[in-house]
Amino acid sequence: MNLAFDHLVIGAASLAEGEAWCEATLGVRPVGGGKHGLMGTHNRLLNLSGPGFPRCYLEIIAIDPDAPPPGRARWFDLDSPALQERLRVEGPGLIHWVARVDGDLDAQLNHWRELGVDAGEAVAASRMTPAGELRWRIALRRDGKRLSSGALPLLIEWGEVHPADGLAGATVNLCKFELSLPQPALLAGLLVETGEAHVHAQLQTPLGLVSLQLMT
């Protein structure tokens, strides 16, 4: 069962700060997005699709101050006091990435468990968009922790619709994604080097090339 790159996750102390970061750093304003009732978060999106990385995007996400507590740890380590402090002091940054499962998410999670990695359970999630309800299944740990400090991706299985399908044509493109892990066999289908956990993404933007390093 192979995996494919799906999207980058930019964490922010507030969605307004994330939007401002996107305009200042990438030269464009993010669009779309919505609210995640399951997690008490909200987001904005930016299409990154290009020849080397089709059907992919950037997600800017923050805790929704108007949402009730979700009753469980939020995804992407957003409840971590240490990460919250870094986002508050240093501003928005790359905190995680998501890989798309080409097949059965439950089978992929079982495979990872056989390799000694517990990525949690498959959970159904959704949010409303102008075109209707967007649905997916995503692997979530009860503690919300990022595996390998965010270098090992969250796994997702989309329904019939993918977010990139409804986004405007990309003016920012993902042109390079470099990844190293102690266990590269976990990510069959993706180019992974063996080594310490590391993520580096390079984007072609209206402001030139922009490099993003994982905020651990």
From TrEMBL:
Domain Glyoxalase-like: 5-193
Protein name: VOC family protein
UniProt xrefs under InterPro entries: Glyas_Bleomycin-R_OHBP_Dase, Glyoxalase-like_dom
Segments passing through the bilayer: none
Source superkingdom: Bacteria
Gene3D superfamilies assigned to the protein according to its UniProt record, in alphabetical order: 2,3-Dihydroxybiphenyl 1,2-Dioxygenase, domain 1
SUPFAM superfamilies from the UniProt entry: Glyoxalase/Bleomycin resistance protein/Dihydroxybiphenyl dioxygenase
